[in-house]
Amino acid sequence: MSVPFGSVPGYLPGSTSLVEQLDRPVLLVLRDSRHIIGVLRSFDQFCNVLVEQSKERRFCWTAGGGGGPVYADVEEGSTIIKGDQIVVMGEVDDLDMPEMGGKLRKVTIKEFNAIMEKVDEEEERKRGKCWDFDTDLNN
Description:
The protein contains two helices and six strands; from the N terminus they run ββββββαα.
């Protein structure tokens, strides 16, 4: 049986569900815990994907100073992601996130980095001196 040119066969081994997400916004959670959002343009039998208009979405759930949880987007353009790096992929309604009733707010990447530095300083202060592998084993 042959498939007419331009139509998608009813069964594509290993990637059947991706056909429905083509040209739609998707969210990918990767093995290194990054979150990528963009428009799915292409895929292959190994689940390698091409995502256009992609952004890496970074979250900070413990924003210092009582500011609440925040997120920032880092624009990446077109991105090819290997299938073995994808943990979860799903369709999203929009590339922008709703404000979730004021609980999660969007900030610029500069503000995000400043918040992360503040959080790191607070955690460092709580921990006290960090364990130094080279000097602590020699004592």
